Amino acid sequence: MDAALFRVLFITAVIQLIGWGTSSLLAIVGVTIAEELRMDVPTVFAGNTVFYCMMGLCSPLLGRSFVRHGARRVMMVGTLVAAPGYLLLAVAQGPFSFFAAWVLIGASGATLLATAAAILIHERAGVQAQRAMGALLLATGLSNSLFWPATAVLADLFGWRITCAIYAALPLVVLLPLLAFALPAQKPVLAPSPLPDASPASPAKPSVTTRSTFLLMMAAIALNGFVTFGFNAVIIELLKVQGVRIDLAVAIGSALGVLQVSARVVDFLGGGRWDGLTTGLWGGTFIAAAPLVVMLGGASLPIIGLFVVVYGLGSGAFTVARNTIPMVFYDQAAYARALSNIALPLNIACGLSPPLFMMLLLGPGPDTLLALATCGAALCLGALLVLRGRRPRPTGLASVTSTG
Description:
By secondary structure, this protein is mostly helical. It has one domain: MFS general substrate transporter like domains (Growth Hormone, Chain: A), CATH 1.20.1250. It has helices at 3-23, 26-37, 41-69, 71-90, 95-112, 115-125, 129-140, 143-158, 160-182, 208-241, 246-269, 276-297, 301-329, 332-362, 366-388, 396-401. Helix 1 (3-23) runs antiparallel to helix 6 (115-125) and helix 3 runs antiparallel to helix 4 (71-90). The radius of gyration is 20 Å and the shape is globular. 55% of the residues are buried.
């Protein structure tokens, strides 16, 4: 890996750490916000729903901008949207201002996080994109491990409002200068190849097989997002319901990031010996098994520890797969549009799951939540198994992307 690519990876990792870390604050201060704003807890966690739905709605609209202007310029705009979002959250007085803040934060996420980072890496890394993406996700997997304790400390010292104000400054003070001055500009691809099955505006009709392959890929990634983002949002409350002390629950939740990174290390060290679909199959299997550990083994501390280990390894591996599975089927120009179109159902699924998981946890109880998660993970795994039989031949990538 040359110095220029390493610099791109480092800057992108910092952006993802701060972006994901700050946006996960409801996992720590959500209950406190609910009490102060006189909102019920599931409604507050619906802030995550607004966040992910806005990301999903904006991402397809940004597809052409990413291709025309490049990821760097789009991400710079995102920093200018994120700052007022967190500032509005800091001064929120009720549901209207609370959700308006998450609209802005979600719109900024579409231009800064996940899809944007993957497109930026794909622009700069070329044929090294899968390995570079693995390296990026090694670092970004620690966002919750770093920001959950930081949010807890800041909220304890200054309150959640000052914490949000501090987070409002980070995009302008840290992220914007990095993008403007530290990340070198690059001329984007101007003539993308068509993506027949990821763009409804494509002039030619794709074959049924090609379209169904895209839909399977989209379904698998969205189902995984539904399960993992739901768990990530409520993991601390889930541990508390299972009898774990609050300080230990925060520590275990923070350790989850380390486990996720461990799985990404294995994928990274693989050095391209397997593709994103293989990573997804292994990660999907672990995620499907994790809820069963608690459902069949009970809620003792060792069983909970085993659940966290299995889930952490699986979700860490699949985080890589979400960005690299499309690389199995699409070339560089089509990849950006594919990822942008997958982002809509993915982010809607990610947005719906946190309040639903919290509602199930506080209502029917953890067993119902775990059963739903198992079903979602099993469906995801089934879609991946079908995709395994549809891998393009070594020369098949060009035929997939030129069909339209």
